[in-house]
Design brief:
This protein has about 325 residues and is of the alpha+beta class. The protein is about 25% helix and about 25% strand. It has a domain of about 130 residues: Clavaminate synthase-like (Double-stranded beta-helix, 4-Layer Sandwich), CATH 3.60.130. The longest helix has 13 residues. Keywords: Dioxygenase, Oxidoreductase.
């Protein structure tokens, strides 16, 4: 993140290791402020990749929905979810259900889909007593710092996401696709370049090939845009990984990632990706009422382990199609 004051939004301060923060002055009309500063705020997000607004005093999901309407061009749908969320309103959701003692590593929201949110909004209604930051990382800088041989292979081959749906771990078929109707699920998969195979026990296994590197549709910036490390078996806690393999088998994990040609990733490779993310991570502890805006293509985000209650509402906006981001591989059923 830049370390100087921005000129696009007066008062926005950027410090090393933290996302840019704008603290609203006491007495600011927080109901009208998002409308009045929309263009400047959107410009700041485009410049920095993420902006934390402090002092809006957001209290509930209705407040978040109101800000979404004021700042975004439109909501984006949560499709092909890998874990449960509660839907509050169009484009506004609870945080993903995930153990509080386990990190959600850096990723770009829904980067395995054909259409994903261009803008993410995270609103803290209740701050945890310890930890729990929604950290961010500049994906262009991550791309530059990863070994060229690794990024060139991913650009050439893409990355492969494999999923095994069941009713015990992660989102079920009905929760991920919004229907239990097999024909509707199959039609969605065909329309979105997802291989599928129904299992004898009624479960579903899928494979989808996606680009690991894209160009930002507005700036043309090359970005490392994927969930290769986050959804890989080696990012999972060792005891959890061992349990899942014992329970479902190495080929039946709820989700896993590979090179685009199907070759498995080594533990060292996944750890390297996560280490580069950490080098470029910026974090700021949550305060109740905070709003973090994130350019979902330019900037990856994570959720760190926490203690105590934590209520962070997520809004997804400004849908973008993968085809508009100069993908390096064709998203097709193979």
């Amino acid at each position: 993140m830049p370390s100087s004051l921005t000129t696009t939004l007066p008062g926005l301060e950027s410090r090393p290791g933290r996302p840019p923060v704008l603290e609203l002055e006491p007495g600011t009309d927080t109901m009208s402020w998002p409308v009045q500063q929309r263009d400047a705020l959107r410009a700041a997000v485009a410049e920095h990749g993420a902006v934390l607004v402090r002092g809006l005093g957001l209290r509930d999901s209705d407040d978040v929905a109101a800000v979404l309407r004021q700042l975004a061009t439109g909501p984006a749908a949560d499709k092909e979810a890998f874990a449960l969320r509660e839907t509050y309103s169009d484009g506004v959701y609870s945080s993903t259900a995930w153990p509080s003692n386990q990190p959600m590593c850096m990723h770009h929201e829904l980067s395995y889909t054909q259409e994903f949110p261009g803008l993410m909004m995270f609103a803290c209604l209740t701050a945890p007593t310890e930890g729990g930051a929604t950290a961010v990382a500049d994906s262009a800088a991550v791309l530059d710092d990863l070994p060229p041989a690794l990024t060139e292979r991913f650009e050439r081959e893409g990355w492969l996401l494999t999923r095994s749906y069941n009713d015990e771990i992660g989102a079920s078929v009905a929760e991920a696709f919004g229907t239990e109707d097999r024909v509707a699920v199959e039609n969605y998969c065909r329309a979105n370049a997802i291989e599928f195979a129904w299992q004898p026990d009624g479960g579903l296994r899928t494979r989808q090939l996606r680009s690991a590197v894209v160009r930002h549709p507005v700036t043309g910036m090359r970005c490392w845009f994927n969930q290769i490390a986050f959804l890989n078996e080696w990012t999972t806690a060792p005891e959890v990984r061992e349990y899942l393999i014992d329970e479902y088998g190495a080929d039946g994990l709820p989700f896993n990632t590979r090179y685009g040609n199907g070759d498995p990733l080594t533990e060292d490779t996944v750890q390297l990706i996560n280490a580069v993310y950490e080098t470029h991570t910026a974090r700021q502890p949550w305060l109740a009422g905070d709003l973090l805006l994130v350019d979902n293509i330019r900037t990856a985000h994570s959720r760190e382990p926490f203690e105590g209650p934590r209520d962070v509402v997520v809004a997804m906006a400004d849908p973008v199609r993968l085809g508009d981001c100069s993908p390096t591989v064709e998203a097709a059923v193979r």
